[in-house]
Amino acid sequence: MTPPLNPLLWVIPILPLAGAAINGFFGRKATKKAISAVALVFCGAAFFVAVLIAANFSSASAPYSFPLAHWLRSGVFTVDFEFYLDQLSLVMLLVITGVGFLIHIYSVGYMWDDDGFYRFMSYLNLFMFFMLTLVLAKNYLVMFIGWEGVGLASYLLIGFWFTKDSAAAAGKKAFIVNRIGDFGFLIALFLIIKHFGSLDFTHVFTALRTLPKETTGAGLLTAIALLLMVGAAGKSAQIPLYVWLPDAMEGPTPVSALIHAATMVTAGVYMVARSSVIFEHAPMAMMVVAIIGTLTALFAATIGIAQTDIKKVLAYSTVSQLGYMFMACGVGAFSAGIFHLMTHAFFKGLLFLAAGSVIHGVGGEQDMRKMGGLRLYMPWTFATMGIATLAIAGIPPFAGFWSKDEILWRAFGASWVYWLVGVITAFITSFYMFRLLYMTFGGDDYRGAVAQEAHGHGGHGHDDHGHGEPHESPWVMLGPLVILAFLSVVGGFVGYGNRFEHFLAPVFRGATGIAQETSPESATSTLEYLLMGISISVAGLGWFLAYLLYSRLPQLPPRIAAGLGGLYRAVANKYYIDELYAVLFVKPLVEGSTTILWHGVDQGMIDAAVNDSADAARHVSDNMRHMQSGNLRSYAGWVAAGGAVVIAYMVWMGVR
Amino acid sequence: MSAMIVASPNMDVLGPIILSLVTFIPAVGGLLILLIPRRDRDIKLFALVISVLAFVASLHLPVHLHRDLNSFKFEIDKVWITTPNIHYHVGIDGISVWLVVLTTFLTPLCVLISWNSIHARVKEFFILLLLLETALIGVFTSLDLFLFYFFYEATLIPMALLVGMYGHGRKVYAAVKFFLFTMIGSMFMLAAIVWLYAKTGSFDFVVIQNAIRTGSVPGFEQASLWLFLGFFIAFAVKVPIFPLHTWLPDAHVEAPTAGSVLLAGVLLKMGTYGLLRFNVGLFPEQAHRNAPWIIVLALIGIIYGALVSLVQPNMKKLIAYSSVSHLGFVVLGIFSFTAAGLNGAVFVMLAHGVATGGLFMLAGILYERRHTYEITEFGGLATPMPKYAAFFLVTVLASLGLPLLNGFIGEFLVLSGAFQARPVYGILAATGVIWSACYLLWMYQRVFFGQVKYEVNNTLPDLSLREKAALWPIAVAALVMGVAPLVWLSAIDPAVQAALSPFTQLASKAVGQ
To answer: How far apart are CA A442 and CA A435, in angstroms?
Structure first.
């Protein structure tokens, strides 16, 4: 019998918070070794505790919880700092602390030469604190602490090289776009408070189970679910709020790996999965989630084709893969979504770290057109990144194959349209990922004669590698790559025989009972194998096409691009969505506020009216001008006189 | 009437006098400064000691406040003037206690922040500052309407003088505008107070409130709307509620830093406190009836203030307009007549006092170095002034309502309460979370990020020890209030419930009809 209370739950987030505080306050004067030690020990300890808990936690275990303290109260409404662990949060916990710890180690190598090293490690730890709070929360408001907090950490880390205007702008953009999502999240919370009187998961979900499914029309639960999805779209970079994530690549690469690939951006998926009971009661909202996910997957993948910045390709790829996860949630396959979240954390984290190793090795260059032949200079980076590419492309038996195939299979069960778009996306994914691999590592010539110049890139600590020849990264960076590569190979096997799904079953055994989580298995297993064959074929086709265009016939892609003309330009310019938003929202807001509100209403109307009446008063009488002499002592006198008149009046009244 | 002291049972020794002590320590200290020779250092030190003393003394209040009861505590009721019947009647509840502490908390920081920025007439400056503190505390403790009015108007003079004498730029214009706006506003309140006195023969808040509740005020039905409006106009100017806000940016821009801190931190709260205590406390039915259009004005204030703030080229004006937006949340919370709304409103008052007070202190620190508030004059300051940048960021985050900092608690409760009252209120107001991120982070980016544009900014010194001493309390308060808001809410909630009781009756009456 496991104890229902587990005080370790609040220790997990507090550990990295302590590390962040120590490095934040004392890091400036500490040695880099001490800073690294603090950051790694506190993050590693969180991982250790997580493993400790996991060792005794099975599919049959009852959830742990731990109330730490009361937080706020108003009338009968209360919110506590309370933590909760079930199978779902355990998976998240292991992914976050495990991958997070690896990225901490990697960062020590990657950021070692940066002046802001202590700041960086402190922010990373701070991020871990908020992310762990997010997944361990027992109510929506504590989750919201983590939710906004990871946004803060993301803001700080995207803008880490704040002397670069583009980095500072990207950080701000990320925060503001996320706030738009948070607006939806907050309204959802208010609806929940209004109708359930609490934000506690257990309380709300228990109350929910007695309500009927909103199959016939959109009601309260549909509204809540859709608003939660607005929040999720902001955090997890879905249409139409995805625009901040590509810009977020301004941050140092370990940040992109940790926050913008493996963990934070998956918070939206986690939140939707956590709220699965709500979504299951709102089929229309589920459909919206599935459609948004599917569209985002395809849309972002197409942009990925034409990007030349190695990190931008990965960024759009992340947006696209997150779309798969929402597609899964939208068709009710929550555990498949979480499964893909986990494998994605492995291979996408690896892809980013390997990209960072490349960038590190060539002196800060990120343009793939200036790379090539790097497999000769950095074999370990090449090998690991190759594995990650096989994984994301969906080549069996690598991790991505299992989770993506699970999603596609379940999507097919809902509608063949989702499946078809998903397969097309899988083809594009395979193509642009192998394109990346060939452009970066393929060929025999390193095209980056410019590596020397590229050191101007923010001047952020790569300057010491000024020998102009690409080099392999140190083992402190390669170690995490190798471990993640291992996980990208074997990570998918936890899903073999639906074991992963069964592990999560207690969480997603929703209102409709266990039946809805079991897939239409045996009867249609022929169909399943057929579909699996198709998705493997398209992955192979994508690979082949990339090989053809970027290894065999490298003169062809520019010609194709030229042939496509406007279409290519639209894709390369990300469909001009940023420009569209600027014209639609940013510009009207700033200009309207300036000319209409400030100059127009504030100065033109209100102040003018005040001044006019003052002027009018001045014309009425010379005495009035004396009053407006600007001499404050005389005003004080007027007040005194006024007061005297009043007192006199009252004395008179009293006498009477 | 004979003098009497009303004190709650089980009160500590200091109980009966503590409130007067807290109120008058600053004023007495200010008068003592008159006796000190014109050695600036001595005067500053003395002012600091006095203001810290007042703060320490004021901590007695929340510590010994009985939170379970909802009547006034630490009450003193003595006849001051027999004809007319004016009493020195003071007392506090779970709402006003925190406003008193907010005042005593900010004043020592004002002294610290003014240390080097005031060069001429130093003596008068600190006397005015301390007199202002007493007047502000008096406003929040008065339970006699005349006494309240006396303190309320008494804040005007030192504040106007601080702006007019120690400000910069068009300081006289700003001081006069401030003075006239609020003076004209208070005239309406005075008329209402006199009417109430004429009908009840008392200025006593509790007496009048009971008289109104029992229906023993002749002619009240016909007059109540005008009485409500009389108070409302006075407080609306002070808050300020759109469209009566245009004095605020001018006053702030020209005011010395300490003036801005107290103006935004405390003075504006006289308005929202007045709305809560008098408009809602004395005229619940009128408050209920007039709530819709007042809420509309509050919503306009929230959104309009934020949007105008967004495009201000002047840092101080930006913060001033952001106050219009934040105070809109307070008004919205009050007139939502929900527990969450009122709790949140009071909490926003306090949180805004800390965070915006902090922002004005930070702006002042920069002004001392560069003698400008123009945002375009800066850029890249995080490089020469990292500590300053860090404090600024924490304050900005508190102000934009990041969870675990103080701005979030109040904002969340207000929005939640407004949503309960009517979803559209909550939805419109919640856009504020987007706007505040826009104007604050954009300003922060332009001031601190990028390369240093002007060479002179490279030489700016980072925070001095004295400045850090003034900023640390702000940062700590922002964090503690965000993590442990129950310390405050546990006192606020009972008082709020008491304020709400007429409305639950109103609601049940409405259902009965």
So the answer is: 9
Contacts of B420 in chain A (CB under 8 A): 190, 193-194
Report CB contact under 8 Å: B190, A646. yes
- Tell me: the pLDDT tens digits for B379-423? 999 999 999 999 999 999 999 999 999 999 999 999 999 999 999
3-state secondary structure B341-383: HHHHHHHHHHHHHHHHHHHHHHHHHHHHHHCCCEHHHCCCCCC
What is the per-residue DSSP string for A179-208?
HHHHHHHHHHHHHHHHHHS--BHHHHHHHH
pLDDT in tens, B61-97: 999 887 666 678 888 888 888 888 899 999 999 999 9
A597–B307 CB contact, under 8 Å: yes
**b (16+ CB within 10 A) / e for B345-357:** bbbbbbbbbbbbb
pLDDT of residue A619: 64
Q: In 3D, which of A140, A139, A341 has the Cα closest to residue A228? A: A140
Residue A103 has pLDDT above 60, yes or no: yes
Give the C-alpha separation, A149 to A328, whole Å.
27
Closest CA to A307 of A435, A216, A126, A409: A435
CA distance A33 to chain B (A): 23
* B69 near A CB under 8 A: no
Structure confidence at residue A456 (pLDDT): 39
State the nearest Cα–Cα gap between B13 and chain A, in angstroms.
31
The strand pairing partners of B144, in sequence order, are B204
Q: Residue B246 is nearest to which of A187, A607, A630, comparing CB atoms?
A: A607
DSSP secondary structure letter of residue A491: G
pTM for this model (two decimals): 0.91
Is residue A563 scored above 50 in pLDDT? yes
CB-nearest to B438 from A167, A176, A635 is: A176
pLDDT at B384: 94
> Rounded to a whole number, what is the distance in Å from the CA of A364 to chain B's nearest CA?
19
Q: State the pLDDT at residue A457.
A: 41
Per-residue confidence (pLDDT) for residue A329, from 0 to 100: 95
DSSP character string of B44-60: HHHHHHHHHHHHHHHHH
For residue A556, the tally of other CB atoms under 10 A from its CB is 12
The two structure tokens encoding residue A183: 């607006």
Q: What is the ipTM of this complex?
A: 0.92
DSSP, collapsed to helix, strand or coil, labels residue B204 as: strand
Instruction: Identify the pLDDT of residue A459.
Output: 40
Q: Do A194 and B419 touch (CB under 8 A)?
A: yes
Report the pLDDT value the prediction gives residue B149, as an integer from 0 to 100.
94
For residues B351-361, give the mean pLDDT.
Answer: 96
Contacts of range B228-231, beta carbons closer than 8 Å, 24 or more positions apart: B228/B279, B228/B283, B228/B286, B228/B287, B228/B290, B229/B188, B230/B188, B230/B189, B230/B191, B230/B192, B230/B195, B231/B188, B231/B189, B231/B192, B231/B274, B231/B275, B231/B278, B231/B279, B231/B282, B231/B283
Q: What average pLDDT does the segment B173-182 reach?
A: 83
Chain A residues inside the 8 Å CB shell of B230 = none
CB–CB of A172/B441 below 8 Å? yes
pLDDT the model gives residue A634: 60
Mean per-residue pLDDT over chain A, rounded: 86
Beta-bridge partners for B3 = none
| Mutation for testing the B interface, residue in A23, A72, A157 having most B CBs under 10 Å | A72
CA distance B340 to chain A (A): 6
Residue B337 contacts A, CB cutoff 8 Å: no
The answer to whether the beta carbons of residues B162 and B179 sit under 8 Å apart is no
